[in-house]
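Morning!

As promised:
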Amino acid sequence: MTAALRLASPPFTLVLQDQGAQLWEGEGRLLAELPEVAPGPERRRQWGELLARALPGKAKVQILFAHSRLEVDCQDVPYLSPRERRDVAQRVVGLSDSAEPKNVGFALDVDPFAEGGHQFWVARHPEWEMHDCVAALEFAGTSLVFATAWQRAFQVAIPEEHPTGLYLALEAGLGRLLLFHGRGLQLMRAFQLPGIDPGNLDEATGELLTEMVAEECTRTLQFVKQKYRNLRFEDLQIVGLGDPPVHLVERLGRGLRLAVKVLAPDLSAFLVRGMAIERDRRDGLNLVPIEIQDALKLRLLRVTVWTAAAAIGVLLGGAWWLLRADGARLEQDLAQAQVAKLQRQRLVAEAEQAGRQRLGAIRLQRAQERQKTSTEQLARLGALLFDVPQGISLETVDVSQVPGDPLRFRFQVAGSAVSGRAFSVGPLADYVARLGRHPGMRLQPLREVSVSDRTPLRGQALGATEMAITRFQLQGVTP
Amino acid sequence: MKHVRERFLMAAGLLGLPALIVVFGILPQIERSRKLRAQIQTAHDEFKVLPQFTPLSHAEKEQLEDPAAPWRFRLPVIVGDRARLDHYHRVIGELQDTLRARGIAARGMRSSWDPIKASFSVPGGMGADPKALLPAQDAPELKVKGWVLEVDVPGATSQLFHGLGTVHRVGPILEPVGLRWEAGPEIREQKLLLRNLVLVP
């Protein structure tokens, strides 16, 4: 859910200091100074009015606790479940002497340099402070989206992870020395830099800064050597100073054997980046009261659910509308199809009616065609059968139509052939050959062919080849 | 139980409203579209092929519907013995007249038609009105039936073919279906076989 709280544009940052507060815009540039006011209704009203003037309506605001009232503890721990984290945090808070109600935030980091593999951060500050801030923000018509500790934002913004790191954070009038072991804060020492603005150093303020930083570093290193004997570090990484004075580099290098490196020139931008990273983490250290977080989660859930419901409703409504339009189009198609069906029915009925009315005429036409064809075929066949060669005498010719289609005639011819001067059955052979040449003629084999001597009549003189007669019967079918 | 009512409303909005739209809006529309498509398909399937035909012209319709049109008597409808006898008489008469007009005097005729049994006088009742032929010839339930008439043609063989070329002039349809020819020292016969078609119920 924390990841879901990612914002499209960077929120404004309210930085709570020991004396008053600052308002930064999204990139960390100073937008307004809020004066120190007594806690309670007066602070809420005055800060609310100032915030209302400085911020646009419904602006998102995050709080960075940078004052000394904030207490931060880091412990090496094994993995803790969410419930165990709450218990440990309550125990840590319970160890403090103050009976003042505290607003608590905690986070568990994987830390390869910690015993147990994890580092547990607990941050707390007076509860009334958060109530004042929330009331002032509500007064200004803005909303609180995130709150965390200055130390935590600083640690998260460090790009590279080292076993041990010594950092110097500088801002106008104030310096902080921080010692990290892995992801755990071992030590933070704040010191005043009266009259010194790291962004605007001259020769004199540079030397003054060198003196004060060297002195604080010396004290800190002595303390560290006494308390943490196993910690070693060789450089001092500076945030908030773009171009360290030469004196500072030489002094720390020669006296304390610390190499000076610039980690980031702008402290506020560095912290804003750290806050953004922490805000986007799933279980980041968030000091926003749990009821406000729940309200934010509920609001987000509400927006998500109703947006999803609206989107689903729109999509389904669109689908329904498209289907409805498709149904209307199909209804039109059906009406057209039914009209076409009626037209076709009518056409078919007309065709059937016309066919029925023409049936008699068609029957007659077919019969006339058949009559004509039959007459032509029978006349042609008759002419062929009766056209006999010389010497052939026909006795019977019987022609009859073969039932069915196509139109065909079966015939049977009986007759006799008188022997000529050449071969005795020559005329019959000529006759049969002539019939066989007729297109489509199918002759059956000659049957009952008999050749007999011809009995000469008294007084007739017959030659040797005129002494025979051939009787025959032939059958066939022709189209 | 915090915000229970709101969470219930959210669940209803996220699940109930879409379910209502689906159940009462989308699914009925899908079913309706499916039915409409099926009806359209059925309408298309019932008459897929358009019949190709030439509509009846006015003149053709008049001719086809005229019960006294000459074409009706070439392939008449025969209902009952009286009509059959009348038709028989008409075929024989017209054939004889036609052959005689061509110089052929048929020596005799035989037919294959069923024996006619009738109580009315012949040929006194032959003058039946042709318009009384029933039913109409376009009735598809009528069957075509044929009977064969054998015509004895005298004279030379050429007379047989002469007669064959004449029969198409006779009003009723006479289709030549065969011929019989026989010649001997003492006999000479030639016969033409003609089939007449009629329509019977």
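The longest helix of chain B spans residues 4-46.

Hope this helps with the figure draft.
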